[in-house]
Amino acid sequence: MELTYGRPAASDAVPEPVTHAAADLPRLRRLLGVPELEWLVERVRGRLVAGRPLTGVVSLATPTSDQRSAVERLLARPPGGGRSLTVRLEAVDAVLRRSGISPEGLAAAVTALIGPITPLAQVRAEEEAAWDRAYAPLDALVRDRPELAAWAARVRTGGLARRLARTPESAHTLLTGVHAALRALPADSAVSLAAFAARTLGSAHALDDGTPHATLTLSGVRALTGFADGSGAEWRRNAWASAGLLKDELSSTVLTLNLQGTPALDWMAHEGEPSVLTLRQLIRRPPSTTSPVVRICENPAVLAAAADTLGPACPPLICLQGQPSAAAFALLRHLHGNGSTFRYHGDFDWGGLRIAGALLRRVPWRPWRYTAADYRAALAGSGSKLAPTPLTGAPTRTPWDPHLATALAEAGVRVEEERELDLLLSDLRSAPDANP
């Protein structure tokens, strides 16, 4: 290792080349580089890695006679006579400088013997800088999709990408793929998950269950669509479907009443019976006719009561059965594109509001007794057999009526959709374009 000396140049002068003073490596190896002093060199290396000064003493318990002799040759004097062997680092540094073996002292001598030593603090700083660079695709995604900012922050601070990728280089590759996938979601029209993975990530299996790309991308999908927590194969299938990605065309369904436009739907509407439509049916043969107004509810109990009470006289009604499925989105987009408008009602709780918000981000609708005034009226109602229960979960916004979220937070009471069943059935008895 070459070491440098130099005198300061005048402030207005061009700096002169710096001269170099190298360690005398052959002498250094004979004096300090012998096997009997490996323990001493290792102690010094450890201090340099830790960024600690080379001062004070280092000790070796139960040294051999050869190790004691090596220290005596190094310091030109006998070491102490205790059971352990103690060496003062300042003394070694002075010997190396004074003899000219290592003009820059002990640190330069050890570096010349074993090679460059990087302090641990520098290693950690370089590693953190590498991880910062690895997250660049995530930062770019947030610029493209600001609504993912909170999710991206959780990915970064929670260490999910680190656990999945292990190294900054692998993380950068992983996040580049996640960026490409989430930029394209939710899908404008339903598409096979495998086909989407092949198109955006270059492999039809990139989003298979258990892959790092699938884990991170599905996490981002839930942030985009507001899909609720869960687990299991069915939950994952529905979570992907909430962004328009299908693991198959038959598992995604939507429940309807009195829609028309296919022979099967026309017959079911004539009978006033509910229909379950698969995504396959909606892709291959969507309804050919639409209604000016279609009502949407969250819970199957509402649709079942409408079928029991009103039968064929009930205006068109669609039930989401919780989180909107890919089939539900496909049907609603089709109806909206052909002129239908939607009126929506759901549970008055944070989960219900999240479902409504996720739907509103994909399909426009107006509230159907689903405002702050309706919530307060429901709280004031009496005679219901379904008593309200305490509100739980994390709050959310209600962009169709900002006062609704405030009203729920203030009252802290959950009102399920079934509790409003009489009012909803009364509305359904009216003309399809009624606006109560």
Automatic annotation (TrEMBL):
Top-rank taxon: Bacteria
InterPro entries reported for this sequence: CHP02679 (IPR013495), CHP02679_N (IPR024466), DUF2399 (IPR024465)
Conserved hypothetical protein CHP02679 N terminus domain mapped to chain residues: 54-260
Name of this chain's protein: TIGR02679 family protein
Domain DUF2399 intervals: 276-428
